[in-house]
Amino acid sequence: MDVIRRRMQVVGMPGVDFHYTGMFNAVKVIFAKEGIRGFFKGMLPNYLKVAPATGASFVTYEWSKKLLGTH
After folding, report:
1. Cα separations (Å) of 16 from 3, 47, 48, 68?
2. What's the burial of 30, exposed, middle or buried (CB within 10 Å: 0-12/13-18/19+)?
3. pTM for the complete prediction?
4. Of 7, 36, 58, 69, which one's alpha carbon is 20 to 30 angstroms from that of 15?
5. Residues ≥6 apart with Cβ < 8 Å to 27
6. pLDDT digits (tens, 9 = 90+) for 27-67
């Protein structure tokens, strides 16, 4: 879903050579042109970005609970 969302966001930008009419059209076009591997593009960089952000959110939440005395 993340690949589909990102690709639909960049449609219309200069240099983008694809166009989708909707989510299901994007799935169909990606699968037809790139196969199942097309849905996993950028997965590793995304995980490298998300893991630290999620960790920071959990730490902030726990510290906030301690400061407010609601643990």
Report:
1. 14, 24, 25, 48
2. buried
3. 0.65
4. 36
5. 4
6. 999 999 999 999 998 889 988 999 999 999 999 999 999 99
* Residue 26 near residue 7 (C-beta atoms within 8 A): yes
| CB contact at 8 A, 38 and 6 | no
* Domain range annotation of the chain: 1-40, 44-71
Three-class secondary structure of residue 66 per DSSP: helix
Identify whether the C-beta of residue 4 lies closer than 8 Å to the C-beta of residue 27.
Answer: yes
The single-letter code of the amino acid at 63 is W
